[in-house]
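Q: Could you fold this chain for me?
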Amino acid sequence: MYSNELIDEVRNRNDIVSVIGSYIKLQKKGSNYMGLCPFHNEKTPSFAVNAAKQFYHCFGCGAGGNVFTFIMEYENYSFPEALKLLADRAGIKLPEEEADGEAKRKADERGRLLEINKQAAIYYYRQLKGDQGREAYRYLTERGLTDETIKHFGLGYSTKDSSDLYRYLKKLGHTDELLAQTGLFRFDERLGGRDKFRDRVIFPIMDINHRVIGFGGRIMGSAGPDVPKYLNSPETKLFEKSRNLYGLNYAKSSRKNQILLCEGYMDVIALHQAGFTNAVAALGTALGASHAALLKRYTAEVVLTFDSDEAGVNAALRAIPILKEAGLIVKVLDMKPYKDPDEFIKAAGAEEFQKRIDSAKNSFFFEIEILQKDFDMSDPEQKMRFFNEMGKKLLTFTDELERNFYIDSMAKAYSIDPQQLIRLVNRLGAQLSAPGGRDMGRPDGGKGKRPVEDGIIKAQKLILTWLTDDPALYEKVKDFLTPEDFVEGIFRDVAEMVYEQYERDRSVDPAKIISQFSDKEEQATVAAIFSAQVQGELDETRRKKAIRDTIMKLKEDSLDRLSQKAIEANDTAYLMEIIAKKAELKKRTIGL
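A: Sure. Below is the predicted structure, expressed as structure tokens.
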């Protein structure tokens, strides 16, 4: 691991406002810089970056941490990768000799796994161009792919001899222990490693930095009932399906104003070859919130180019709310009469495909169009049920002006008086917001509302925030309130670090404290601890009273907890001592 001094220097040389401001738009507001959170969907900025304390906290989703945490979360980097990026940004050279211990071992292991994947990808590519890969190469060229495209995407072939790759990588000096972590092999005690992608066309999967992190393979022979047509690498230390998209390493640099989301590798490759270098696809898993958040980093609009069959339509209906929740504009491309983008491009060409992109349907209109097919519009009862279902969907627009725009459009499309539709929507909203109903204006349908924060938890956050804001406060409360008065767990840990820093440095550095926690959830919690606020503005008199009341509340709670422990231990002497402290507490005053 690099020395703490070097890590602190890298952190101190990278102003968090400048770093985060290079990713998202920030505006000065009071003591913070505010922006739209990149980790969840929001229309009103709740993402705060504190320049003085050098950390960020989202009051909406709870994300938080220091400059390292942000880079790790935003770029999906490990700590060593984030450290290197920020060191390079600050012009700091990381000396190799300072890296040791567990962190270096993990970084080295990750580097070796990346190297193995790179070597495997090169090997597969060579096999495709060799004698054994003739059939696979013919398959790709018959699908319309050029040699340039094959090379660009690093396509390859895994031979019918499932031990070829294993023997090749063993000759390069890699151990079975390391090869087992790549997800490339099944291991047999007698035969050793057997290639999982035997007799398949290979699609290397790259992260946004063009590093091979996994593989996909399409079987060449006829697939039996238990053999999947397409096979992806399993989850490994390098490869997480939910945090990567095929083709994004190229699409992120596209100058197009949207990203095309496809269903498979060949669709992405065919579109890129046709000039649509903004195409990506999920990796053998359903589209999830992490994919949507990843897309949000690189675009504001996603066009769904899923297959035109029933499965493709259902996949689009599942994807739309996920993408919209991430704050993306979503449109749906009409593929008919063709099945998928690959078939469309071959039959109609790139120019016609661009016309379809330009006329892609608003995702809400698409959802209503599909919904309407379930109802017989010539039957008054079914027609009314359709409008009720449409009304519920209109309630998902929380902004009244936006909702009214959609109401107007739906009224014109389905020949209904706009005022009648507005009354229907309002009536449904009143019913769904009533006790026992669901608030459809909320993204979660009224479920999962945040519980009111426990009073003692809030008090601890306030005190720790105030201590970091006002160094003079520490001298006035340190003998009255100690770390032992904080609830055990992360609050006590943070309190101990705050007190220790004040004793040592006469000041506190919240960003440095955040660095002491390796778990991202803990880092977010610590950022929240240092971001506590009280309702409304406080003048000096009210502020002092709030501090006194909060300190007293914490001290009383601490003594109550000690009393309970004394009772449980049947320790009468200790209980009497605590009772005496409680009596003394009522007489003491805190001079602020």
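A (continued): Residues 101-129 form the longest helix (29 residues).
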